[in-house]
Amino acid sequence: MKYKKYFRKTSLKQKGDGEFFLEEIKKKNPKIFLEVGVFHGVTARNVCELLSELNGNNFQYIGLDLFEKSEENKSEIIPNTNFSNPFKQIYFRYIKRQDPYTIEAVEDLLKKFQNNIHLIKGNSNSVLKKIDMTKVDYVFLDGGHDYNTVKNDLDSCSEVINNDGTILCDDYNLSYAPGVKKAIDEYVENNNYKCEILRNSRFAKIEK
Ligand SMILES: C[S@@+](CC[C@H](N)C(=O)[O-])C[C@H]1O[C@@H](n2cnc3c(N)ncnc32)[C@H](O)[C@@H]1O
Fold first, then answer.
1. Which domains are seen in the chain, by residue range?
2. Which atom of ligand 1 is closest in space to residue 171's alpha carbon?
3. In the chain, which residues have pLDDT < 50?
4. What is the 3-state secondary structure (H, E, C) of 108-156?
């Protein structure tokens, strides 16, 4: 399945990465998918398109993001939300009249799946502990890249792995965010989980 960009920004922008990612999801065909770090919602839309093709209406997508830059969030890496392409700037400012990095804009992008989605604005360090993980069977972890945040996110999702689900982490080996790799390596070792490093060390797939 082709990974589409929907005229927005996404971290899966390198050629083939998006398609590789969708193939990984397809192999497991999850029914309740959680994405930590939604950003403009491009991955969210692609996942919903895939799961709807596979399961009709029988899937749920839960997406969590800060959806804002603030003093409180300043230790987290938030990608540059400005477009270098002037057509995209004009499109969002004057035609859509939206900031694509908002929960409202992502809801709009996902509106054809409004009965299947649940978007949450908040910090994963506090929100993940409140989510019922018993039914979640796939997590795409692509939120905060700080060591403590990744450690917290992984710890909060352990039930998913223990119930035979999968956590797929993005940016495993990123030079400017070494805390991601450190947190994943420690987590896998401490819990004796299986971890596959995929796509030139971009993704780490953790399972039981
Ligand atoms: C790399 S982007 C996600 C890209 C998206 N998954 C995609 O495929 O296009 C990382 C996102 O994580 C969010 N984020 C960073 N720290 C967070 C935290 N502690 N809790 C929730 N979201 C966080 C940022 O706001 C940003 O939108």
1. 17-207 (3.40.50.150)
2. 1
3. none
4. HHCHHHCCCEEEEECCHHHHHHHCCCCCCCEEEECCCCCHHHHHHHHHH
